[in-house]
Amino acid sequence: MKMMNFSKVRQELHKIPELAFQEFKTKELLLSYLEDLDDFTVHQFKQSNGILVEYSHGEGAYQLFRADMDALPITEATESSFISQHKGIMHACGHDIHMTTLLGLIYKIAEIKPKNNLLFLFQPAEEGEGGAESVLAEGLIQSYNIKQVFALHVNGNLPVGTISTKPGIFFAIPQEFDVEFTGVSAHAAFPQNGKDALEAGVYFYEKIHSVIKQVFGIESIIFNIGEMKSGNIRNVIPDKCVLKGTHRTLDKNTRDLINTEIKSIGEAVAQKFNLDFKLTLLCTYDPVINDADLYEQLKKICSELSIDFRDSITSMTGEDFGFFTSLYPGLLFWLGAGEDAQDLHSNRFMPDENCIPTGIEVLYHFTLDN
């Protein structure tokens, strides 16, 4: 079995970031590190680049450990020696660290050879493209008797090696949406001949924010429209206006109610301005719910290993690991990657790879209680 250099693997992965469902080179690299491991069975998914690594000993239940594979459409602006070689794509969410940590855990299991049943999932397309749903839809994972599921996520606001999480709802439910108004284009000198989609878009923007604040408040939800596009010539009335947004909630009922408000207000605005209206509901996840017993177990592990543990608060971040915690008792925790790492999704995000051994050790200790 080849030795694993954590730094080398992380840097190799960081150089070849790939978007959701396009993780071909990433998969090839991971398989090259898995191919000569004894006692493991490598399964490949039919509909994606995901990899499921099986380590079986008897009829007992399995623990599943998951890392995400994809990157983001961001042009990297770090000064690292292993900067992205794929123009306009970057591992700006730390998935290179996640994959390296999971690979390191596999190598540790290969060395120690415990008599446990374990699964290791390299999951594609976490970044809003339905990767978790895709691998679950194939049914391979559900064919195993899974007892518990685990994942970690790097955090650029915590010291290297710090662990942080909470029981219950840890990550919220994200909902991406597009709103589109379609009118009639006309020369600005003859406004009576047009139907101004931009005017409707601006009206909708103000109206929806007002209603969301009045009806739902701002304490337990986030509502944001981050992109608005309309027109391309200064003296022409725009015939189309598209608004792209997201909202984050803590329960599915509230999510559905907000979706209903978006549709209702959009239709009312379209009627007011005599326009056509279209609402497209895009990516949404289940909430990440941490099992209380696993949370207590994590605190105990950190204490035994003298790892700095900090209680966290619920994050309005979305994570499709929630689809796993909806099926099985699970745990997701923050792994501190340096307070100077910058924010997630920043073009300068650069987590410290010295956090990897801590992630491996914590995950490994969960296997001891299988």
SSE topology sketch:
Layout: H1 6-15, H2 24-34, E1 41-44, E2 51-55, E3 62-68, H3 95-112, E4 118-123, H4 131-137, E5 146-155, E6 163-165, E7 168-171, E8 173-182, E9 186-187, H5 197-216, E10 222-230, E11 236-237, E12 240-249, H6 252-273, E13 276-284, E14 288-290, H7 292-304, E15 309-311, H8 322-325, E16 330-336, H9 356-367
Parallel strand pairs: 3-4, 3-5, 5-16, 6-15
Antiparallel strand pairs: 1-2, 2-4, 6-16, 7-14, 8-12, 8-13, 9-11, 10-12
Helix pairs in contact: 1-3, 3-9, 5-6
Which keywords apply here?
370 residues; alpha/beta; Aminopeptidase; Alpha-Beta Plaits; 2 domains; eight-stranded mixed sheet; four-stranded antiparallel sheet; 9 helices; 25% strand
Assigned CATH class of the largest domain: Alpha Beta
Which CATH architecture of the largest domain is right?
3-Layer(aba) Sandwich
Which blocks of ≥5 consecutive residues have pLDDT under 50?
none
Rg from Cα: 23 Å
Give the number of domains.
2
User: In percent, how helical is the residue content?
Assistant: 25-40%
Q: Widest sheet: strand order?
A: 1-2-4-3-5-16-6-15
SS content category: alpha/beta
CATH topology of the largest domain: Aminopeptidase
Oligomerization state:
single chain
Sheet with most strands: 8 strands, mixed
**Secondary structure tally: strands:** 16
Shape: elongated
Quick one: CATH superfamily of the largest domain? Answer: Zn peptidases
Q: Please trace the helix and strand order, writing H or E for each element.
A: HHEEEHEHEEEEEHEEEHEEHEHEH
Mean pLDDT: 95
Number of H/I helices: 9
% residues in beta strands:
25-35%
Terminus-to-terminus distance: 25 Å
